[in-house]
Amino acid sequence: MPNVLAVDGRPSILAMIVDMLQESSYAVNTASDGAEALEWMREHPTGVILLDLELPLEREFLARLRHGSSWAGIPIVGMTTHPLDSPASRLRPPTLLIKPFRRADLEQALRRALAPQIH
Fold it and tell me: Cα–Cα distance between 117 and 75 in angstroms, integer?
């Protein structure tokens, strides 16, 4: 299973994600914001990113990931509570996960995000 980096400003959400994914044999690491995530990614391989689209500065983080970086190919699963009426909807990554979610929803979102990489 690829390494998952979960980025969310709420420790309770990160703990829930870790619990859900460890039960499914994913290796999970966490960051509380984009800066911490970038620091982690400089030192560790990352297979997929779970990103809270409502975090402050998530736009800058997404821009760095998508344009001109060695991380441009890493799939992103965006997490949001407001799928249609928030600024996050304009930044929508290809895979979107609506909070609150169940483990089955999370696993399905990860499979969709990783599908192009699976041969």
Answer: 9
Compute the mean pLDDT over every residue in the chain, rounded to the nearest whole number: 84
Domain residue limits, the chain: 3-101
Q: Which residue has the higher pLDDT, 64 or 107?
A: 107
pTM, 2 dp: 0.86
CATH topology of domain 3-101: Rossmann fold (3.40.50)
pLDDT higher than 80, residue 86: no
**Cα(74)–Cα(4) distance, rounded to whole angstroms?**
10
